[in-house]
TrEMBL record:
Belongs to the metallo-dependent hydrolases superfamily. Adenosine and AMP deaminases family. Keywords: Hydrolase, Metal-binding, Zinc. Its EC number is 3.5.4.4. It comes from the Bacteria. Signal peptide: none annotated. InterPro entries: A_deaminase_dom (IPR001365), Ado/ade_deaminase (IPR006330), Metal_Hydrolase (IPR032466). GO terms for molecular function: deaminase activity; hydrolase activity, acting on carbon-nitrogen (but not peptide) bonds, in cyclic amidines; metal ion binding. Residues 13-332 form the Adenosine deaminase domain. NCBIfam families: aden_deam (TIGR01430), PRK09358.1-3 (NF006848). This is Adenosine deaminase. PANTHER family: ADENINE DEAMINASE.
Amino acid sequence: MTEEELHAIVHLPKVELHTHFEGMAPPAFIRGLAKEKKVDLSRIFRPDGSYDYRDFWHFLEVYEAATSVLKSPEDFARLCTAVLEESAANGVVYQETFLSPDFCGGGDVAAWKEYLHAIREAATVAERDLGITLRGVITCIRHFGSDQARDTACCAAETAGDFITGFGMGGDEKKGRQRDFSWAFDCAREAGLQLTTHAGEWNGPSEVREAVEDLGVERIGHGVNAHTDPALLEMLAERGVTLEVCPGSNVFLGVFPSLDQHPIAKLRKAGVPVTISTDDPPFFHTTMRKEYEALAKTFRWGEEDFRDLNRIAIGAAFCDEATRSAIAKRLEQP
Ligand code: ADE
Ligand code: ZN
């Protein structure tokens, strides 16, 4: 691949479906807030300033510690501006992000509405100034349990609309079962929200099957461990269940030992709708440009492969049809 070909790939307009809002916070942003609020967070940073954690489960603890200094709607509005500047600089034109009312007012509906209002205002300014469109997917957190997920679903149902368009679940996949959260997902569906859940990042293919069959989700966060089950791959392809694949995250956290051993090419070949995202980019030392560059080099994918991946992503986006066609048009720019 020539330098020009790689340059064209890295600079393509991009659709990103799987990001955690707080997980996009640059470490310097969190350090700055900690200083302002006189909270000692030195334990979660390495001497070079990056986030410090040992493995995925420790990552979840560090994530929650970092999030603890985001205390007001204004803090979340500042975060929104910072993350959309970074995403727009990476060529992202449409992004979905997981928002957790648990971190924004502790799951209280009235408080959540204030946080959401502030986030939305910042997103509107970024859309006008930077040309990036954001949509929110409200996310319950699996290791916080199904009771808390009900509160989260109530927040989601109360604020479902043109900005909050989806409902999902993140957190520790080793805790509980997908079906424990049926009430929350049913509530969200009834409120008109589209559904996704993290599955098959740490557990095997049966987790992905349960997510589809027990919760009725249209997309799966990660889902990469489906690759060992041919019947499941067939089912995902047939039903058009889209995987939000985060290759850099998977390699950084050790789900796969290296990108060349990542099953993303195999999943595409099986006809499963696959998309590319960064998950929690500063935590995993990645960006959308870095993801595209690494994938292009490792799998020898050309510009048309990435254009296809983006078409799949906007096709699976949780947004209204006017937004979808406007973004799809931007993706086709030469
Ligand atoms: N929360 C933030 N990042 C996550 C991930 N990759 N998996 C599950 N929960 C998360
Ligand atoms: Zn995730």
